[in-house]
Amino acid sequence: MHVVMLSDLENRGGAAVAASRLATGLVKGGHRVTRIVHFESPGSHPWATRRLVVSGTRGRLLRLLPPRARARVGSVFLEYRLRAILDEVDPDVVNVHNLHGAGPVGWNLGLVTICAAKAPTVWTMHDMWSFTGRCAYNWDCDLFRSGCDHTCPTHFEYPSLPPDEIAPAWRRRRAVISGSDDLIAVGPSRWLHQEAARGLWPPDRVRWIPYGLPLDRFRPVAPGTARAALGLATTRPVLLVCAADWTERRKGGRGLREALEQLPPGSVCLLTLGAGGIGIDRQEVHDLGYVEDERMTALAYSAADLFVHPAQVDNLPNVVLESIACGTPVVGLPIGGVPDMVLPGITGWMARGRDSRDLADAVRMALADRERWPELRRSCRAWAERHYGDDLQAERYVSLFKELLGTDGGGT
């Protein structure tokens, strides 16, 4: 079948990477994929790409407008352009991913309505944005259940929105979701699946399909070989931590620092991936910086004895999946979809709570369990092969697409 995938970014950032892995799995399964994006990624891809932008004279005129007016006017042009692209490519189904990264240039909920009017549409949720007034993660706020409004406690955080616009935005989401029975949501984690059904999504229109990843690229390498390739020479246990930007509050950099300060000085070697830095000075630190190359990140996972995920809120983080696929057990907090992946005795250790003391206790527990690390390396890989292959993810989506189409899958 022909699947059109709509997303703000093509291949940068966790949500776009997850969408790209799904697209690759669908193509490997013999299906045709067209990506419609605003931010295109360089290089060759197994799918076709179309950019949804306002260009030419209209684009030049839009740039002269103030930001809020630019987004409003731009959305009209973008909706017209999306209709034209969909009419041209004629998909069997549409798969929507993140939109809010292109919000400042006019991407909006109207694009989803257009997709659902063209073909059965599945909205893969990478966060809570589809059923809140503006936020990607609600933290401890439950306003999304009854109606987000100007009292939003995090309106200034990404994706930000002026307080007086939050209630109308929540109502627009309600109208979009209730306005089409051909619009189905997918939650990659059990947590997001449940939160969507507590919010604006009818429970019978929310499905659970975990992410997948290429197990041939994320696979175990002997730790000694991986450390030599990275120039990492240490006799201490190696703890890997990874985040795109450690200055982002939800990534848990502060809690990680506080947790590591509770360990004896010099007791571990911290291997770090990501921008922003963490500011650890009581432990040995090897900072690899921001790395996009999957071969390098796979080596980092394999070089580590443990992967520590300190995020305070999250969906089904790619980095945890990648670590498990590389055979490296994980220490995680009981938040979001992390409990789906971090299973005590199989793939790692789960903290009791989400504060720094809980994280420190879980790390100490994992360090004390050193004799079980070889066994857990094997069970991590086996679990990934059983549950998280990109081919399995694609098969699950194809089954859903066929269900919505009511046929054996449409054309080729």
Structure description:
The protein has 412 residues and is α/β, with parallel strands linked by helices. The protein folds into two domains: 2-212 and 390-405, Rossmann fold, CATH 3.40.50.2000; 223-387, 3-Layer(aba) Sandwich (Rossmann fold). Helix content is 40%, strand content 16%. The protein contains 15 helices and 13 strands. The chain has helices at residues 14-28, 56-62, 67-89, 110-118, 143-146, 163-178, 190-198, 223-230, 253-261, 294-303, 318-325, 338-341, 356-368, 373-387, 390-405; strands spanning 2-9, 32-39, 48-51, 93-96, 121-124, 183-187, 206-208, 238-245, 269-275, 284-287, 306-309, 330-332, 348-350. The strands form two sheets. A seven-stranded parallel beta sheet has the order 3-2-1-4-5-6-7, with helices on both faces. It has a six-stranded parallel beta sheet with strand order 10-9-8-11-12-13, with helices on both faces. Helix 7 (190-198) links the parallel strand 6 (183-187) and strand 7. Helix 1 (14-28) crosses helix 15 and helix 11 crosses helix 14. The N and C termini lie close together (5 Å). The model has no long low-confidence stretch (mean pLDDT 93).
